[in-house]
Design a protein that fits this description.
transmembrane helix, zinc, zinc ion transmembrane transporter activity, 242 residues, 81% helix, mainly alpha, membrane, transmembrane
């Protein structure tokens, strides 16, 4: 139980670190793009080789398919809503002086972090070991969100202390979400765990496809395809040797 809470917080700790970088440093766009591409590859690999592969054979294929597509649909609807509220840049690291959407980005990131952390909590059910690939993937993917939001919040005259408190709150919520995911599903049938994992996989794949990968290519060029592929194959290797 304690492990679930710990690693849920660790996965989101990069939001706090990303905020510090956004406040005090200017990160080259290409560097951020390469990080995003690698994180995208890790998430795609983790969602496919871990969440979906484990579901196969442990739950009904129809239920897995429905939940996977439901996860993608829920994220897409959520994305449409957040875009209208000004948070369309939450996975991006670029400065947009014409649209101070820092708070909307923060809210969007908070809503992203909850299901991601619940999945981390579920991964510890049954005495399973730490899901390193998934946690690292979420850790890396969080950097551009905090970078982008911190820039927007500074433009909106938020103090450094207030910005760091906001991101610290996401780390705490993420830790609690992982803990709740573990506690409330501890007695659920094993097939339920895998079906929820399929739901999370659908949402994660929809997220990286519509937010992270487009900007990575826009800022980093064709080489991000290779970097993403590197992330995927490393995810495959780590999943099979763990």
């Amino acid at each position: 139980m304690a492990q679930a809470a710990l690693w849920g917080g660790v996965a989101s700790l990069s939001l706090f670190l990303g905020a510090l970088l956004g406040i005090y440093f200017k990160i080259p766009k290409k560097v951020t793009a390469f990080i995003m591409a690698f994180g995208t590859g890790l998430i795609i690999g983790s969602a496919t080789f871990d969440l979906l592969s484990e579901a196969g054979g442990n739950a009904d294929i129809l239920h897995i398919t429905i939940m996977f597509l439901a996860g993608a649909a829920v994220f897409t609807l959520f994305e449409l809503w957040i875009n209208k509220k000004g948070g369309s840049q939450r996975k991006r690291s670029q400065k947009n002086p014409h649209n101070h959407s820092g708070l909307a980005i923060y809210i969007g990131t908070l809503m992203d972090a909850i299901p991601e952390s619940i999945i981390i909590g579920i991964s510890f059910l049954g005495g399973q070991s730490v899901q390193w690939v998934f946690i690292i993937a979420i850790f890396i993917s969080n950097f551009p969100e905090a970078l982008s939001s911190s820039i927007g919040l500074k433009l909106d005259s938020y103090s450094t202390k207030k910005i760091l408190v906001l991101w610290g709150s996401v780390v705490i919520v993420s830790s609690l979400s992982a803990l709740l995911g573990y506690v409330f599903l501890a007695d659920a049938p094993e097939s339920t765990e895998y079906i929820i994992g399929a739901f999370g996989a659908g949402g994660l794949l929809a997220m990286v496809s519509s937010t992270m990968l487009p900007e990575a290519f826009e800022e980093g060029g064709p080489v991000v395809g290779f970097i993403s592929a590197l992330g995927i194959i490393l995810s495959f290797i780590f999943t099979n040797i763990s």
